[in-house]
Specification:
Belongs to the flavin monoamine oxidase family. It holds the Pfam family Amino_oxidase. It comes from Polaribacter ponticola. InterPro entries: Amino_oxidase (IPR002937), FAD/NAD-bd_sf (IPR036188), Flavin_MAO (IPR050703). This is FAD-dependent oxidoreductase. This protein has nine helices and 22 strands. A hairpin with a 7-residue loop joins strand 7 and strand 8. It has two domains: about 170 residues, FAD/NAD(P)-binding domain; about 160 residues, Polyamine Oxidase, Chain A, domain 2, CATH 3.90.660. The chain has a seven-stranded mixed sheet with strand order 8-7-17-18-19-16-20. The chain is elongated. By secondary structure, it is of the alpha/beta class. Helix 1 runs parallel beside helix 3, helix 1 runs parallel beside helix 9 and helix 2 packs across helix 9. The longest helix is centred in the last third of the chain and has 19 residues.
Length: about 350
Amino acid sequence: MKKNILIIGAGISGLYLGYQLKNKGFSIKILEANNRIGGRIYTKENHKTKVELGATWLWRYNEELLKACKELKISLFEQNMNGDALYEATNTDLPQRFKVPKNQEISYRIVGGTTTILDKMLENLSSDELQLNQKVVKIDDSKEAIKVITEQSEFTADIVISTIPPQLLINSVKFSSKLDTNLIQVANNTHTWMKDSIKFALVYKTPFWKDKNLSGVAFSNIGPIAEMYEHSNFENNHFALMGFLNGRLINESKKQREAKIKEQLFKFFGEEGKNYLSYEEKIWNEDELLNFKNEKLIPPHYNNGHEIYQQEYLKDKFIIAGSETSKKYGGYMEGAIYRGNQIVAQLTHKFL
């Protein structure tokens, strides 16, 4: 009998699970609380330039993700690191130029933007199989099947797979049956990747930094910009810089952050640095569909891939997935694909 599988979340974890399980012959449906797909993949376009405010890079050791890209016919290109980098140590010293070591691990980006991997998987899904604006509020396993209740509708399935970050899952969804107390304890102490990040991007008319023999790479101990990288597209006809802001800026307004960034750009590049076409930012801590806000400080990757996430729950009808549950590269895109493949193999062995 064709098993009906419901997946909560349409980030890379949920879409990949839906794509693979449908190919295996399962009946699938994906529910997404947001009005867009992607989760922590967030490619935004301004002035015809695509910039990444979420997941951006992959590396040669990301074997499962590279296999997925090959299967989906997705092309990659190297992150540009040509030219000098800048380092700002103190408020009183000018930024110093330095050469990035040649033995650095090469990072890659996806041609057309990281969202390309989502769009390719989306081609295999119907409008009924993926539904947006369906925020899950309760999971009811009191009957033989399992029921998922959203703010808009109710859905019944044989198996439910959640790709919501574990800490957010157990604090935002009600369950008719009491969850394992050890699961609750571990989930409440599981780090959610990206939640501590403030990403920004600047679109420019020209790559003026190249004329100065600069790579666009910059690091600062004291400024609003903690890290920055060149972010032009593969065709090299749209130009941008992208990076991470200092976490202390979270309590300031966007206008205040942008003003401080302009000052730092002037120190890095002179007047040209301030003459950008657009400024974009994403404060992931403020995203209620990613982060459960509390005062608890959890170290990066803590409890990612914990053994408790490898079990099935609610009479074997409920699986907790998502990148944080992966034993390898938890939190990253590679972790999402690795965990997805693990679950697909598990369900295929069980039902097919």
